[in-house]
Amino acid sequence: MRIVTENLSYVYSEKSKELAVQALNNISLTIEEGEFFGIIGQTGSGKSTFVQHLNGLIKVGKDKGSIVIGDFNLTDKKCDFKSLRAKVGMVFQYPEYQLFAETVKDDVAFGIKNFFPALSEKETEEMVKTAITLVGLDYEIVKDKSPFDLSGGQKRRVAIAGVIVTRPEILVLDEPVAGLDPQGKREFTELLKNLHKTTVKTIVIVSHDMNFVSENCTRVAVFSHGELYAEGSPKEIFSDFTRLKELGLDLPVTAYLTEKLSETGIKVESDITTDGFSDAFAAAYIENKEKRRREE
Amino acid sequence: MALLTAENVCFSYDKKGDVIKNVTLEVNEGEYIAVIGHNGSGKSTLAKLFNALLKPDEGTVTVDGFSSSDKKNLYEIRKRVGVVFQNPDNQLIASIVEDDVAFGPENLGVKREEIKERIDFALKAVGMEKYLKSTPSRLSGGQKQRIAIAGVLALKPKILVLDESTAMLDPQGRKEVLEVVKNLNKEQNVTVITITHYMEEVVDADRVYVIDGGKIEATGTPAEIFKDRALLERTGLELPLAAKIADKLISRGVPLKDGILTREQLAEALCAL
Amino acid sequence: MRDIAFGQYYPAKSFVHNMDPRVKILLSIAYIVAVFLVAPFHYLGFAACLLFVIIATLFSKVPFLRILKSIKAVLFFVILSAVLQIFFNTNGNLLWSWGIIKITDEGLFNAGFIVARITLIVMGASLLTFTTTPVELADGIESLMYPLKFIKFPVHDFALVMSIALRFIPTLIEETDRIIKAQKARGADFESGNIFRRAKALIPVLIPLLISSLRRADELADAMDARCYSGSDKRTRYKKMKITYRDVLGFLVVAGLITGVVFLNKFYILITVL
Q1: How many other CB atoms are found less than 10 A from the CB of residue C91?
Q2: B209 SS3 class
Q3: Nearest Cβ partner of C219 from B85, B95, B133?
Q4: Is the pLDDT of residue C6 over 50?
Q5: Closest among B2, B40, B6 to B23, alpha carbons compared
Q6: Reduced to 3 states, what is the DSSP secondary structure of residue C254?
Q7: Residues C264 and C213 grouped into a single domain
Q8: What are C73-132's pLDDT values in tens digits?
Q9: Residue B225: its chain A contacts at CB < 8 A?
Q10: Domain range enclosing C162
Q11: B135 and B251 within one domain
Q12: Residue C141 lies in a domain
């Protein structure tokens, strides 16, 4: 399913003049199926408002543009938002705070009970089992535990399982690694990549972590004051050093190094992943050394 | 004598498994100390032992000569050790900034005129003097956390403990808070103990304690700690990203010296090649 | 959810903002008494109260729209009371009937009366909360309740609990909003079905909210302890309440209002007698 938004705008508290805030302004953005799409921007730039439109949690206002996701036209009054939400999963910041059921199994099954009430107990359990296994937990061990007795990292996994259990084609995540420790972050990144490879076709991720975005995303959109400031590959986005800094955004370490090197006249062309940068720099360094040796 | 010492401290919440096992450490006046460890390693429990929110089951925690095992020292210790917690929303008490900062001094029975002075001093120290009359719920995460720091500074503490105080902030907020804390350490000579799992926040510390499973696993300068790759692996920690990239470059044949921790150091080293 | 205006402080520097919270609380109570004193069918009395609220609002620099919006929070309650009166008050002259439903003139008058009463009270009360910070409010109530200390009532703790509750309202509203969205994303449906179904649908919102509130309370207690809170009597107060000319003036105006209302009641009786 492809996501196409055209001229999407949104105003908070539109009715009241003094409180009205233009949260989104004319966003036209297409996200292709299969992408690992990053959205960056300062707090308050409209990223979260944008992604909440993608499964109809925020409805498109009249004359506020359009969103089409696969066969769903979200601007249409008759749009079946329930089916849409089963296809577009949404993981909020600190998703573990949405857990509520007595057992892990029941909590993960919540989505199925809502979206596909006709499924049999057996089919439901099968799907729950698959989801819990996918997020890297042992189904037999955790299924009857209370979600509140798990560790922080495990809770977050259960919450993700509760979203992917309906097998969404698109997974939208808002700052999913906030608060995790280094190991938790590493594992979570692996989990996302694995999901992208095996079950979820498209991943849209809102992140403050520029290093994460430059390392993992296929394409990036930059939001600023409710507007789509730029979009492109991480390489393209992070090569515009000065403008990013104007937006109050940090550079990934690799882009920072590329900038500093170019200031001293050394050009390093890479896709700005850590491996890509290291390869490119090492190649340039060795070539340079050879050249100098030959000159001597 | 050290400003804060912990000697053979053991602690458990339910008398079953010890969360803190035989911890001994000391912090000297003016130091900037980092305590690092993964989630659940016991590092936040340590913060609460430092300011007598928790009492050790065994061993002693002494602050400026006051032992936390003696109940009557409670407020002497809390006056000296200010703790800023993780969630900015859960530590602001009042709906107006100045009232919130006043809360600590009010509890100590400080006179009104002096409370006013302390509020001015504390808000200025965190660069929030313009927000005296603001409502915290309308401030950004970083600003809220700076107010929380001001609320603690109004107690005139000798030690500032940051218990994962930047974990819930965006990069901008994190930067604001770290700058404020570094300034306090340098200019006001406030001793800082930062408890964190952000490796980038560790590199500027004078000394680092690595905690795992409730035990102190290692202590040393940031450079010493990050040189010990086996230790990081074992304790679920990692190198700062710049150091990781330096490693990658070295393995690809680029001759870099050891001990590169920050992106500035790495950029300098690369440009000099 | 964010639009809830009732109970939110509106920061400004104004005559009303600068009044002593204790006086404002007492005057608000006096004002409510005045509204209750207006006898049925004495709409001039209501007009006097409305005039008072409008003048007080002008002096408070709070936009009038905000005051009106605060009615929205109790709108359901207002409509419900009005509807009950209209449909179930069988006294007075019958105007229209359909089956068991009988609409009488007295029912309509009573409905109008109740709507006017509630609206005026909410407007006055919201003006108090718009111009008085929760902390001032709590301090004011604490100070007014001071005599209760002699019967061992924990006045100070009570006031602190109140001000903290007020402080957490915006935080909890935001949190509720987020949890509702998260569960909606998992297919939860809060809008359809009968009342029992809807109540049941709220469980996935209420439980996370309860758990997070407990966690917040825990963390807040630690933060308060860390800042040397002991609940002892040695605690000093940063905010000092002082009665100024504003308070005296406010007192006179409200006294005038009550006299006016009482006078209008009598005056009206006089007219009807004539």
Answers
A1: 11
A2: strand
A3: B85
A4: no
A5: B6
A6: helix
A7: no
A8: 788 888 888 888 887 777 777 777 777 777 888 888 888 888 888 999 999 988 998 998
A9: none
A10: 155-239
A11: no
A12: no
Asked whether residue C195 falls in the same domain as residue C182, the answer is yes
Compute the mean pLDDT over every residue in chain C, rounded to the nearest whole number. Answer: 84
- B108 contacts C135? CB cut-off 8 A: no
A254 phi and psi, to 5 degrees? Answer: -65, -40
Domains contained in chain B, number: 2
Q: Within a domain: residue B39?
A: yes
CA distance C239 to B121: 18
CA B226 centroid distance within chain: 19
Picking from C171, C215, C239, the nearest residue to B137 by CB comes out as C171
Residue C147 lies in a domain: no
- On whether the CB atoms of residues B51 and B78 are closer than 8 A, the answer is yes
Domain extent at residue B24: 4-226
Distance CA(B212)–CA(B235), nearest Å, equals 6
Is C3 inside a domain boundary?
yes
* Residues B161, B30 share a domain: yes
* CB proximity A81 to C under 8 Å: no
**Which pLDDT does position C2 carry in this prediction?**
43
Residue whose entry in the numeric block shows the structure tokens 């005139």: B156
Question: Is A59 within 8 Å of A14 (Cβ atoms)?
Answer: no
C206's tokens: 């209420």
Residue A41, SS3 per DSSP? coil
pLDDT in tens, C11-48: 888 888 989 988 999 999 999 998 888 887 777 888 88
pLDDT tens string, chain A, 296 residues long: the values are 999 999 999 988 776 655 677 889 999 999 999 999 999 999 889 999 999 999 999 999 888 999 999 999 999 888 999 999 999 999 999 999 999 999 999 999 999 999 999 999 999 999 999 999 999 999 999 999 999 999 888 999 999 999 999 999 999 999 998 888 888 999 999 999 999 999 999 999 999 999 999 999 999 999 999 999 999 999 999 988 888 888 888 899 999 999 999 998 888 889 999 999 999 999 999 888 888 888 87
Instruction: Give the integer Cα–Cα distance in Å for C151 and C154.
Output: 9
pTM attached to this predicted model: 0.84
Which DSSP category does B48 fall into?
Answer: H
CB atoms within 10 A of CB B124: 12
Which residues of chain A lie closer than 8 angstroms to C65, CB-CB? 16
Task: Say if the Cβ atoms of B89 and C134 lie within 8 Å.
Answer: no
Q: Where in chain A is the domain with CATH 3.40.50.300?
A: 36-59+80-235
Residues B201, B246 within the same domain: no
In this structure, the answer to whether residues C5 and C91 fall within a common structural domain is yes
- What are φ and ψ of residue A236, in 5° steps? -65, -45
Residue with tokens 């005559």: C15
pLDDT at residue number A193: 94
Q: How many CB pairs under 8 A join A and C?
A: 66
Residue C156 pLDDT greater than 60, yes or no: yes
Q: Are residues C118 and C32 in the same domain?
A: yes
CB proximity C241 to B under 8 Å: no
Domain A36-59+80-235 indexed as CATH 3.40.50.300: yes
Q: B164 and B251 in one domain?
A: no
Say if residue C90 is in the same domain as residue C159. no
Q: Is residue B234 part of a domain?
A: no
Which amino acid appears at position B48 of this protein?
A: K
Q: Do A100 and C208 touch (CB under 8 A)?
A: yes
Same domain, C116 and C9: yes
Q: Are residues B166 and B268 in the same domain?
A: no
Residue A17's pLDDT is what? Answer: 58
Nearest-Cα residue of chain A relative to residue C176: A98
CA dist., res. B94 & res. C160, Å (int)? 9
The total number of structural domains that make up chain C: 2
Alpha-carbon Rg for chain C in angstroms: 23
The confidence score (pLDDT) of residue A209 equals: 92
The string of DSSP codes covering B136-180 is: GGGS-HHHHHHHHHHHHHTT--SEEEEESTTTTS-HHHHHHHHHH
Asked if the structure places residue C51 within a domain, the reply is yes
